[in-house]
Each structure stands twice: as structure tokens, then as C-alpha cells.
Specification:
- This protein has 106 residues and is an alpha+beta fold.
- The protein has one domain: 2-Layer Sandwich (YaeB-like fold), CATH 3.30.2310.20.
- Helices cover 43% and strands 26% of the residues.
- The protein has 3 helices and 5 strands.
- Strand 4 and strand 5 form a beta hairpin.
- The chain is globular.
């Protein structure tokens, strides 16, 4: 049986910000494609929760999975996949870890 996924508040803000940027710079179709394909990637995580790279150096139990030019950060529990953040894969992840990955996803 597949797990379900939940999206943390900060991850939801990340996704909204990325979609807004795409809509403003590449059009609404690009933003729609992004959110549709991201949702597909989240569903894949529910079937294969260990597919992502372990990122314990950033936060215990954290994993990341590339998606286009972004990284999906998530945690897997026995019941669900917790989507912690969706960020640009080119940003400094060491600086990122100090503030970004500790929020409760619910």
C-alpha cells in the first residue's frame, strides 16, 4: 500500500512562489505544467519513499529528490511522506539548512 503525502506550510509557499514566477515569466501553461508534474513526482515518492538521496548533513532523516532545476526535500515516516521544501537546486544548501528544514509539516 502506498503512503500518502503532506505538504508543509513552507513547501506550499515555495511551490506557490515558483508557480507565480513561472506564470509571470513563462506563462500560465508553464506554471500549470510545473504543478502537475510536481504532483506526479510527489505521488512517485509515496510509492518509492527511499528513492531520494539521504541528506542527514542538513537535517536528520531528510531526503532530497531532484525535479527539473529544483530539489524536493522530504521525510518518510511509516504513514506518510512529509514534503518539507521545494527549492532551487542551485542555492547554497549549507546556508539553507540553518533555517529552512525544521518546520513541522502539518
Amino acid at each position: 500500500m502506498s503512503q500518502r503525502y503532506v505538504i508543509a506550510i513552507q513547501a506550499s509557499r515555495d511551490i506557490e512562489s515558483i508557480a507565480d514566477y513561472l506564470a509571470n515569466n513563462s506563462g500560465f501553461d508553464a506554471a500549470d505544467r510545473f504543478t502537475i508534474n510536481l504532483t506526479k513526482k510527489f505521488r512517485k515518492l509515496t510509492r518509492f519513499p527511499n528513492i531520494g538521496r539521504r541528506r542527514d548533513e542538513l537535517s536528520s532523516g531528510l531526503r532530497s529528490l531532484p525535479f527539473e532545476t529544483y530539489l524536493i526535500f522530504y521525510r518518510s515516516t511509516s504513514e506518510e511522506i512529509e514534503i518539507a521544501r521545494v527549492v532551487n537546486g542551485y542555492q547554497d544548501l549549507e546556508a539553507f539548512r540553518t533555517y529552512a528544514l525544521t518546520e513541522d509539516p502539518k
